[in-house]
Amino acid sequence: MAAAEGAGSTPVELLVSLGRNQSTKTLLKVIILAIIAAAAVASRLFSVIRFESIIHEFDPWFNFRATKYLVANGFYQFWDWFDDRTWHPLGRVTGGTLYPGLMVTSGAIYHLLRFLTVPVDIRNICVLLAPAFSGLTAYAAYLLTNEMTTSSSAGLLAAAFMGITPGYISRSVAGSYDNEAIAIFLLVFTFFLWIKALKLGSVLWGALCALFYGYMVASWGGYAFITCLVPLHAFVLICMGRFSLRLYVAYTTWYALGTLASMQIPFVGFLPVRTSEHMPALGIFGFLQLVAFLEYVRSAVPSRQFQTFLYVGLGGIFGVGLLGLVGLTAGGYIAPWSGRFYSLWDTGYAKIHIPIIASVSEHQPTAWPAFFFDLNMLIWLFPAGVYMCFQRLEDEHVFIIVYALFGSYFAGVMVRLMLTLTPVVCVAAAIAASQLLDTYLQYKSPEVVDNKEEESSDGTTKKSSKQSSLRSASQPVVGIYNVLSKAFIAGAMTLFLLIFVQHCTWVTSNAYSSPSVVLASRMPDGSQHIIDDYREAYQWLRQNTKEDAKIMSWWDYGYQIGGMADRPTLVDNNTWNNTHIATVGKAMSSREEVAYPIMRQHEVDYVLVVFGGLLGYSGDDINKFLWMVRIAEGIWPDEVKERDFFTPRGEYKVDADASETMKNSLMYKMSYHNYASLFPPGQAQDRVRGARLPDQSPVLNSLEEAYTSENWIIRIYKVKDLDNVGRDHAAAASFERGHKKKKAIKKRGPRVLRVE
Amino acid sequence: MRWLPALLSVIALPLGSFAAKSSSSSAERFQTFHTQAVSSSPLKLSDATYKKLTSAPRDYSVGVLLTALDAKYGCELCAAFQPEWEVLGKSWVKGDKKGESRLILTTLDFAEGRETFMSLGLQTAPVLLLFQPTTGPHAVSSPDPIRYDFANGPPTAEVVHDWLARQLPDRPHPPVYRPVNYVRWIVTTVSLLGLAGVVFKLWPYILPIIQNRNVWAGISLIGILLFTSGHMYNQIRKVPYVAGDGRGGIRYFAGGFQSQYGLETQIIAFIYGVLSFATISLAMKAPRTKDSHLQQIMVIVWGIVLTLMYSFLLSVFRGKNGGYPFKLPPFIVNSIFASPNSIAS
């Protein structure tokens, strides 16, 4: 073995020679990657250890329900699934309006394990799917980075960064069973395959890229990011004069097969040829054919004038094509950018036109602490890595640069898109960090040479390389002379990396591991106290209401009610029908007299509100209330007005100073019904908004309290039936309370003679 | 062209008042004002014409924008909304020459209608009032005008159009028509062509700049630094540049995790930039330096800059997020910028 040959006297040299062996290196890499994958999985298990194996948040509950349906009824049933238990009374064509990749993946794993006679609950597969895929993502990041640089440590660093960076953990902890769980792996892997196809000009790799692109389309709406980034990369390459047959082969293979693959998903269907966000891909496809044709003609006709003519013609055709696209869009043949995508460019658009998009907290712009929180030291290694990409500037480096620019723009506009930025940050930061470490961890120091001798040759290299390379890389590498310098920088970097690991663990443990279905708080003695109101209330619904009792709540809780309580809902997190959501918003924000007919018309049996006033839980319905008002106002501007919910001084208040409209709204009444009776007189207070409430609780006539959970987080009201003797509810309720019906005393003026 | 409508209205006014005097029936009053409106809409009112137009028995609707356009009142909203109001007024009349919608859109400036402002008790401008008809098929019970809410900044003509359309059901609502600005088109085309010509002429000089990697690297890095330091948040939320601390000083850093100031993001971008540049220098420049002493000085200086800046960054972040436990020397005391109430939720 080579290790034996090179075995020197000192253990250090022994170690060095061991690392030079090719097979040892491979073994080491495998071990390191396995450890990284293990670390990636382990750091996502906080919530399972602290709480239990439970599905988190909101959307995962729908995915979980759909997966159960798939496993129980088979694929074809799932494909044609019409769900009449959501969006009552409309229903939802669920099979045609979801991305099935996630459910099919876990269904396949489930059946595989069954086949291997491993008895495992489908819930555990769903809970642990995201951590398992994060290990694969780390590996994909390793592969992608290896395409960028010759240094093998960069790939391993990238894998480690990808595995533990909070920007990715935020969407992939155990229990976070969402589309992003597998989509980020597919995103990184598709990019790797694209780079591979581009480098080799291979149809095989291009087809593989298209295959994984199809899988990505089946999994996540964010596939549009790939659909736009790959053509952009191709376009930038053409503009740089780097058109090659490799590019032509890779791109056309990817586009033709990938588009066909994506059109197999019912939810996507004909969108790839009908909507604007897919047009760049189609346009570049056509443009590439033109460029290829002209390149061919150019190679046959060597005249210089003709070449110029060709380039001008090319530019002209491109311009005409662009104009045609604009014309077709204006004419309505191509759908313009859908609201969600459009709001990425015109950032004020969503707030005015689509409040339902603006209301989601993930769609808010990102403040700088969020970047640092999610990426820590990578955020400043990232620009350095991008700069280093300019050094060699091969086709694949151009990809990283384009991705970095667009990724950081999108992440700045929307918090949620931090997820798409994270892979490129990890890759670029790994390139920077590995270059730094490779330089300063070099065991051998170069010989000190007399620099006066070198002066003359120095000048010539400077001149020759001035044009084509970076200024800081214009001279040849000599290495670091001094051990002290090496120790200082290597020590500092080690310290930073250790802090990075600590930071990631701390952030994951503190910020991203809460299931949000179960809340945890600390008792005064430091022990943990679990607040389980959600599941308590949903369990109550499941056991005490009819199978088909319709529950009205704000859309945030629709998936959870469907998943945990198994009851039909009016609206849920799918938000496909804005008017229906606005109807619920109107019912919540109107007077009882207005809300009751709405609830009757929709056959509502129970109304569920979330109230955090007792516990100080800030994500409750009163804090979301203004969005309900805004969304309802978008449809009924004359009946619901946001202004009326503020005090004359423009404050949003819930105490005695609250506006009349606010006090009479159904949401306010349901939230604070009987709340004051919990406190001694004069001391009722809302701990979220820090407001002292009036002693008199609001009176509810058309609803009655059915259930309130232990900490009052969830309150459920039953909608009263029509009165037996035909009175309105207010009259009936006041009769119940023992008030006599007031006789209207008619004031009679002095009698006058009727004159006609 | 501006003087023409004004002149016309000046000529039309005495005629109108003459006509109105002779017969004050509602239908004829509408006819008179509508004829004026066809030549210049929205119609400019004064105290007298305002009273006449809105007097009680009327079978038509009137939209009055009470505004204060004179620069001395400094009403920005008035100035911002005025062109939109004119677009709306013109397109309404253009689409409804016969007056079938029975709506007249008018403007009353504070300079012309001081008394009206006083009698309505208005303290602010602009105010948009819609007087509904009191007789006729579309009569409403209350004679009081409906007031448009200017709460969300200057609305576009389309928004106000929708509001009017809602208030006036069962009547024609001519769509908003924005005139094509030919001058702007011509100017744009000519300047674009000119620019193309200049680029063509200077192409040999521009080409090296375009092909220079350093330029592109610089542009990319500046873009990335801008976006990752929260520039888009500033654009969208329109945050203040700096804020006072209530004691006459300046607060550079906003308290809390979800907020920031303009200057704050620039400081952060600068810190990121210095850290990146230190990394680049250490990784790329230092190993290319031939002189060993120079190299050592370089490594030590950039290394110190790196550690100092990172330590400072961590301390700034601790100020934003109260519970953050990590620190590096020398900035290990709790951040000097942290305000006492900046514990992040």
From TrEMBL, chain A:
<feature type="transmembrane region" description="Helical">
    <location>
        <begin position="27"/>
        <end position="49"/>
    </location>
</feature>
<keyword id="KW-0812">Transmembrane</keyword>
<feature type="domain" description="STT3/PglB/AglB core">
    <location>
        <begin position="550"/>
        <end position="600"/>
    </location>
</feature>
<comment type="similarity">
    <text>Belongs to the STT3 family.</text>
</comment>
<keyword id="KW-1133">Transmembrane helix</keyword>
<dbReference type="Pfam" id="PF21436">
    <property type="entry name" value="STT3-PglB_core"/>
</dbReference>
<dbReference type="GO" id="GO:0004579">
    <property type="term" value="F:dolichyl-diphosphooligosaccharide-protein glycotransferase activity"/>
</dbReference>
<feature type="transmembrane region" description="Helical">
    <location>
        <begin position="397"/>
        <end position="415"/>
    </location>
</feature>
<keyword id="KW-0479">Metal-binding</keyword>
<feature type="transmembrane region" description="Helical">
    <location>
        <begin position="309"/>
        <end position="335"/>
    </location>
</feature>
<feature type="transmembrane region" description="Helical">
    <location>
        <begin position="279"/>
        <end position="297"/>
    </location>
</feature>
<keyword id="KW-0464">Manganese</keyword>
<keyword id="KW-0256">Endoplasmic reticulum</keyword>
<comment type="function">
    <text>Catalytic subunit of the oligosaccharyl transferase (OST) complex that catalyzes the initial transfer of a defined glycan (Glc(3)Man(9)GlcNAc(2) in eukaryotes) from the lipid carrier dolichol-pyrophosphate to an asparagine residue within an Asn-X-Ser/Thr consensus motif in nascent polypeptide chains, the first step in protein N-glycosylation. N-glycosylation occurs cotranslationally and the complex associates with the Sec61 complex at the channel-forming translocon complex that mediates protein translocation across the endoplasmic reticulum (ER).</text>
</comment>
<feature type="transmembrane region" description="Helical">
    <location>
        <begin position="252"/>
        <end position="273"/>
    </location>
</feature>
<feature type="transmembrane region" description="Helical">
    <location>
        <begin position="478"/>
        <end position="501"/>
    </location>
</feature>
<dbReference type="GO" id="GO:0008250">
    <property type="term" value="C:oligosaccharyltransferase complex"/>
</dbReference>
<feature type="transmembrane region" description="Helical">
    <location>
        <begin position="181"/>
        <end position="214"/>
    </location>
</feature>
<keyword id="KW-0325">Glycoprotein</keyword>
<feature type="transmembrane region" description="Helical">
    <location>
        <begin position="220"/>
        <end position="240"/>
    </location>
</feature>
<keyword id="KW-0328">Glycosyltransferase</keyword>
<keyword id="KW-0472">Membrane</keyword>
Automatic annotation (TrEMBL), chain B:
<keyword id="KW-0812">Transmembrane</keyword>
<protein>
    <recommendedName>
        <fullName>Magnesium transporter protein 1</fullName>
    </recommendedName>
</protein>
<dbReference type="GO" id="GO:0018279">
    <property type="term" value="P:protein N-linked glycosylation via asparagine"/>
</dbReference>
<feature type="signal peptide">
    <location>
        <begin position="1"/>
        <end position="19"/>
    </location>
</feature>
<keyword id="KW-0472">Membrane</keyword>
<keyword id="KW-0256">Endoplasmic reticulum</keyword>
<feature type="transmembrane region" description="Helical">
    <location>
        <begin position="215"/>
        <end position="233"/>
    </location>
</feature>
<keyword id="KW-1133">Transmembrane helix</keyword>
<feature type="transmembrane region" description="Helical">
    <location>
        <begin position="267"/>
        <end position="285"/>
    </location>
</feature>
<dbReference type="Pfam" id="PF04756">
    <property type="entry name" value="OST3_OST6"/>
</dbReference>
<dbReference type="GO" id="GO:0008250">
    <property type="term" value="C:oligosaccharyltransferase complex"/>
</dbReference>
<dbReference type="InterPro" id="IPR021149">
    <property type="entry name" value="OligosaccharylTrfase_OST3/OST6"/>
</dbReference>
<feature type="transmembrane region" description="Helical">
    <location>
        <begin position="182"/>
        <end position="203"/>
    </location>
</feature>
<comment type="similarity">
    <text>Belongs to the OST3/OST6 family.</text>
</comment>
<keyword id="KW-0732">Signal</keyword>
<feature type="transmembrane region" description="Helical">
    <location>
        <begin position="297"/>
        <end position="317"/>
    </location>
</feature>
<comment type="function">
    <text>Subunit of the oligosaccharyl transferase (OST) complex that catalyzes the initial transfer of a defined glycan (Glc(3)Man(9)GlcNAc(2) in eukaryotes) from the lipid carrier dolichol-pyrophosphate to an asparagine residue within an Asn-X-Ser/Thr consensus motif in nascent polypeptide chains, the first step in protein N-glycosylation. N-glycosylation occurs cotranslationally and the complex associates with the Sec61 complex at the channel-forming translocon complex that mediates protein translocation across the endoplasmic reticulum (ER). All subunits are required for a maximal enzyme activity.</text>
</comment>
